[in-house]
Amino acid sequence: MRVDHMVPVHFQEPIVEPYDGTKDIHYHLKAFRIQMLISGGSDAIKCKYFVGTLRDTAPMPLRSINIFDDFSGKFLSQFAY
User: Assuming Cys at both sites, which of 16, 55, 56, 66 could form a disulfide with 44, CB separation 3.0 to 4.6 Å?
Assistant: First the structure.
C-alpha cells in the first residue's frame, strides 16, 4: 500500500452530514473539504472518506481516482442539476 493511501495514526474522521441528493452539492463539498483540512490527509484519503459521505445516491468510482480535485469534479458533474 502506498504511504499516501494509509490513514495517519491520529487522523480524525471528518464529521459531515451525508449527502442524499436533495441538498446543495457545493455546500456538501465545501463542508467536506474544510473538515479534511482540519483532519489532514492525502488526496487518496479524501477520496476514500468522501465516498462514505454519500447516501442514497448513485455510486461514485471507488478505486479509479486518487486525486481529490478530479474526484470532486466528477461528483459535481454527476449531481449538478
Answer: 66
Question: Can you tell me the distance from the alpha carbon of 78 to that of 72, in angstroms, rounded to the nearest whole number?
Answer: 10
SS3 sequence, the chain? CCHHHCCCCCCCCCCCCCECCCCCHHHHHHHHHHHHHHHCCCHHHHHHHHHCCECCCCCCCCCCCCCHHHHHHHHHHHHCC
**In whole angstroms, how far apart are CA 73 and each of 18, 24, 68?**
18, 15, 8
Name the one residue in this structure whose C-alpha cell is 458533474.
Answer: 77
Q: What is the pLDDT along the chain (81 residues), one digit of tens a residue?
A: 455 567 777 778 888 889 888 888 899 999 999 998 888 778 888 888 888 888 876 566 556 667 888 888 888 888 776
Is this prediction's pTM over 0.70?
Answer: yes
